Amino acid sequence: MALPSSASPTQTAPPPPVSRSWLLARLDSLLSEPLRKALPADLVRYRLLVGVACFFVLFNTLYALGALWAGLPPAPSLVASLLYMSVLVLARRASTIQPPSALLLACMAIAIIGATFEGRVPFVSTHAISTLIPVFAVYLAGARVGFFVTLTLLIALCVGYPLYFTLAGLSLPHLSPSLFWLMHLFSGLSLLGAWGIGALHNTARDAAQGSREQTLKALQQSENKLSSLLESTDDPALSMDKEGRLITANAAAKQVHFQQFGKEAVVGQPFWVEEPERARRWAPYMAQAFSGQRVRFEDEFELRGSLRLMDISLSPLLGEDGQVVGLTLFARDITLRKEAESRLGEMHRALLDVSRQAGMAEVATGVLHNVGNTLNSVNISTGLVTDRLRASRVSSLVRAAQLLHKHTADLPTFFTQDPKGQMFPAFLLTLSRQLQEERDALLQEMRSLSEGVDHIKSIVSMQQRHASTAGVQEQVELPQLIDEALRLHAASFEQLGIRIERDYAPVPPLSVDRHKLLQILVNLMSNARHALMESPRQDKRLIIGIRPEPDGNQVRIQVTDTGVGIAPENLPRLFMQGFTTKRTGHGFGLHISALAAEELRGRLSSESPGLGQGATFTLELPLEPS
Length: 626
Known about the structure:
The protein has 4 domains: 22-214, no CATH class; 233-333, PAS domain (Beta-Lactamase, 2-Layer Sandwich); 342-464; 471-622, Histidine kinase-like ATPase, C-terminal domain (Heat Shock Protein 90), CATH 3.30.565. 60% of the residues lie in helices and 13% in strands. The protein is built from 18 helices and 12 strands. The chain has helices at 22-29, 33-36, 40-70, 75-93, 98-119, 132-141, 143-167, 177-232, 251-261, 276-290, 335-390, 394-406, 411-417, 419-468, 478-488, 490-496, 514-534, 589-599; strands at 237-241, 246-249, 295-303, 306-318, 324-333, 473-476, 499-504, 510-513, 541-548, 554-561, 603-607, 615-622. The strands form 3 sheets. It has a 5-stranded antiparallel beta sheet with strand order 2-1-5-4-3. Helix 5 (98-119) packs antiparallel against helix 6 (132-141) and helix 13 crosses helix 14 (419-468). The radius of gyration is 56 Å and the shape is rod-shaped. The relative contact order is 0.05. Residues 5-19 have low confidence and may be disordered. Residues 606-626 are annotated as: Disordered. Its EC number is 2.7.13.3. It catalyses: ATP + protein L-histidine = ADP + protein N-phospho-L-histidine.
């Protein structure tokens, strides 16, 4: 993957800095291989050692030539040159610094002591340059070796030489013996002071070096962890400066860059995009990142011959002063995720269709169940009417009428002299009473039959009304809608002996999809009915409550039953698709009810004290319209 940047395509990276000058390279050539591979702080001391040795070789060689020209013996200078050359030979062969440094310090000490005694000049030992030897000894070989060298110089120059000068009877006309001894005493103190300053410098340097090494070690560990973290991910990650040059990139980023452009990404080289259109699209995002903002966007790349959608995240890269010096980029291939989201969206829409159909089926089941119970009552009433009509005394009335018709010509004689005629008035009175009772019974059954038919018409009409308004937002009176849901289960509730308790607090009308809310209520009541059916309790109660929230923004509809209850381990899974505790359940009803509640911008929850202690389902809905 490549980034647009302000760097020109023809811009080249600056040449790498030269790590060593010509002089340092010559000094390193005089060191052995182990010494050249030393730490930078130690390498400085080793270079100084061979540099000082080279200087003294050159100095003593020139001095020997000058001595020959002046007619003086050159032997001491030539011997000193050979000794300093021996230091260089040891430095070229030694694996440690101790042998050449010991020889160099010995040569320097012998040289200054020899010059002092040979020349019989008291000012050599008291010259300030002599204090450089203890400082150099401490820097080169450490405080202990430096102290030994300093003590040697102190004894030889500040004690031995004054004694030699005095015992030899030497004197200076302008310098008294007491002042002479005082000068060498303070010279010794100067040597000790120089050693102390060198030792203090070494101690401070070692402490700083230790702290620096710890910091570098921690930094290295942190860098290794960060590098391992970046390399462990398959997502491209890189950083670049404000000129568009690559600072670092993980293997995934380099691989994507190679796949897209056919060339390797090089650290320090411009990391730019060759497509002008992409550079134009990315320019605003880059500007935001360089201004200190985090930016996230999506872009398409053609990788491995296919179009891939990448999620790009740009973050500012801050320097030590807190200023933006570049940016970091993280990218993730989200092609599969987007495809999965698309399929999930299709599945969600299909699930909603199924849930709507399932909800309609639930309502239809309630309708059919209620209509079936009512039809059963109608059928019973019809059978009773038929049986009563078959056993009716109307046939006795017909026979009485036929008997009267037979005696039409002699009715007075029939009523006064015929035994049947004499019983006729009492018979008619008894028959009329029986026919009156039959009529009353038939009217009662016909009223029951008419009520059943009216109930069926009411249920069918209500279902038609809800079916015609499915998906439409309308103002709904919650008590009225809950009562309609209860009517769908009224017959089964009555047969099971379930007592309905209503606890409706006053709430304003709710703007909602009536049909969807009815599906939820019917489903909750159906679950409550099953829970009450399976409960051995005689006190079977279903409590429906309506409560507004204290903030006035929501309303709660609670369906509470005294049924079998819910086990604590089942509560978290209750609304998961496919989960059911019923022997014949499909695990879909509560799941689609929860989905429908979310579509209404609400929430469906449940709680139960435990098995055998009933359950409460709470539907929370917003009062304001969506």
